[in-house]
Amino acid sequence: MIISIATGPWLPVPAVQGGAIPRIWQGLAEEFANRGHQVRILCRSYPGQPQTEVINGVEYIRQGGLPQSTNIVLDLFKDLLYALLTFPSLPSSDILIINDFWLPVFAALHPKVGQIVVNAARFPKGQYGLYGGVARFAAVSKAIKDAIAQEYPAAIPKIKIIPNPIDTNIFYPSICSRVEQKEKIILYVGRVHPEKGIHLLLDAFSILSQQISTVKLRIVGPVEENQGGGGKTYLRTLESQVNNLNVEFIKPIFDVHKLSDFYRKADLFCYPSLAEKGESFGLAPLEAMATSLAPVVSDLACFKDFIQEGITGYFFDHRSPNAANNLANVLASAILNPEKTEQICYQARQKASEFSYEQIANMYLSDFELLLSHSC
């Protein structure tokens, strides 16, 4: 098959600036190429990256690109311009995978792009009625599938759940047992943004520290608004909550090998997202699970595709007026019941192994073959 992957105008590929989507599609593209398919990634141009190159059997074609802002209306307009400029030069393909808002609308007007597959990795915002020429909506979770179906019932026959993969060759448990440390390290990895609930986590950690004095919280991720963070004002708000707590803020780590080491050095992972309509999958908790960390997450539907309460992780009620107390209690229970948590770590690792690049690539390639057989 000839497979083209269009990743949109915002982030470069390979992911030198971070971003889960570029990292995911680089890995899947390489897996497709390893199976003998002709694969190209159409991505934004970026300083230091050539206009065209081949990496690990994948051809990269770079053109255009725009900086993302915090203004969604402005970004939709910029993305529209990008799509209008990009779609005439789309290459001939059997399959065109798109992770972008406007490009699926115009790509359908191109006669040689093949079957169009939308990587539905975000909650819909009214656009699915414009995607009549799309052959498949690959929803990354049941929550996204249900949201698309509710917004645009005509899309239901075209929706299939194909989850995001993780690189199990990078995110794996330590070959040695976790060293018993005096401090119990709780780790958060992700954007430092209000919708991720970092302020709630700090409130809970303050309560937890009164119960267990030997706990430490590490927060790893971008603060800058142009990287999806909440900005310096939000960071100052968080820092005002810290006081004398054992909390460490760490700048974003774009090297996934170094990032995986942070997971392996932690004792518990917490992802307290409050984004009811923004959290589509939850890659960070799954990466934590792959390194044999028990995840503690908010009660969002997307996490339930791979986290089962008391078996592969823990949930807390983030909607309650007592959310901080709820989270503190769950964290305390996980730390004070090490045998149960250790069993959860084992089950979490087993579950995460189902999301390797190899297995998710199998799901995509099987579906591509189905789409092409129906198009004949």
Account of the 3D structure:
- The strands form 2 sheets. The chain has an 8-stranded mixed β-sheet. A 6-stranded parallel β-sheet has the order 11-10-9-12-13-14, sandwiched between helices.
- The radius of gyration is 21 Å and the shape is globular.
- It has 11 helices and 14 strands.
- The chain has 2 domains: 2-165 and 356-371, 3-Layer(aba) Sandwich (Rossmann fold), CATH 3.40.50; 184-354, Glycogen Phosphorylase B (Rossmann fold, 3-Layer(aba) Sandwich), CATH 3.40.50.
- It is α/β, with parallel strands linked by helices.
- 44% of the residues are buried.
- Strand 3 (52-55) and strand 4 form a beta hairpin.
- Helix content is 36%, strand content 17%.
List its traits:
eight-stranded mixed sheet, 376 residues, Rossmann fold, alpha/beta, six-stranded parallel sheet, 2 domains
